[in-house]
Design a protein that fits this description.
Helices cover 0% and strands 46% of the residues. By secondary structure, it is mainly beta. Strands 5, 8, 11, 13, 14 and 15 form a six-stranded antiparallel beta sheet that branches. Strands 1, 2, 3 and 4 form a four-stranded antiparallel beta sheet that branches. It has a three-stranded antiparallel beta sheet with strand order 6-7-12, with no helix packed on it. The radius of gyration is 19 Å and the shape is globular.
Length: 177
């Protein structure tokens, strides 16, 4: 763009709510903005951090566990993870580096383990209250964390799903580019 963002208005097309919004990927947002002088111009905005959803969760018939996350701005922010599930008593939040490919469980339908099955850690085991759980971890603006990617996923247990657990959707977290 040619002008400061304060002089621009965001051009938002009408999107189908059932389709993925592909205007942001890998920590970069692609938007069209209307410049009062130059008209509509493309802009590429590097995000401080981003969270991108991966495959959907899985579970028993008609239900799936869901995982949400938010990154607070450094230096006072952190990683907040929230989830919900229609069954189970506790959720284990798993973390790993992005695997070469996710692990699928064909016998259990579309269940996919998004974290690296050979190298994940359990961040916390959180009890479910009214079908929800939440946890926050502080993240300091450590230079070693800049640009780190991680995958988060929750395992909810015990359930009557084919695996005996429900897997949430996976989330790809990009820290401070």
């Amino acid at each position: 763009g040619t002008r400061g963002y304060s002089d621009l208005s965001l051009e938002t097309p009408v999107l189908d709510p059932y389709e993925d919004d592909e205007r942001a990927a890998n920590g970069v947002a692609y938007v069209a903005m209307r410049d009062p002088v130059s008209g509509i111009e493309p802009h590429v905005i590097e995000l401080d951090g981003s969270i991108e959803p991966l495959a959907r969760g899985c579970g028993g018939l008609g239900r799936e566990a869901e995982l949400f996350a938010a990154l607070g701005p450094a230096p006072l922010g952190g990683l907040t993870v929230e989830g919900r599930s229609a069954s189970g008593t506790a959720a284990a939040v798993l973390l790993s580096a992005p695997p070469l490919r996710p692990t699928s469980f064909p016998a259990a339908g579309r269940c996919v383990l998004e974290v690296d099955a050979n190298a994940f850690v359990t961040l916390a085991v959180v009890p479910l209250a009214s079908g929800r759980f939440a946890r926050t971890w502080p993240l300091h603006p450590e230079p070693a964390l800049r640009g780190v990617q991680a995958v988060l996923q929750a395992v909810v247990a015990p359930t009557d799903g084919p695996l005996g657990v429900d897997l949430s959707n996976g989330l790809l977290v990009n820290l401070w580019r």
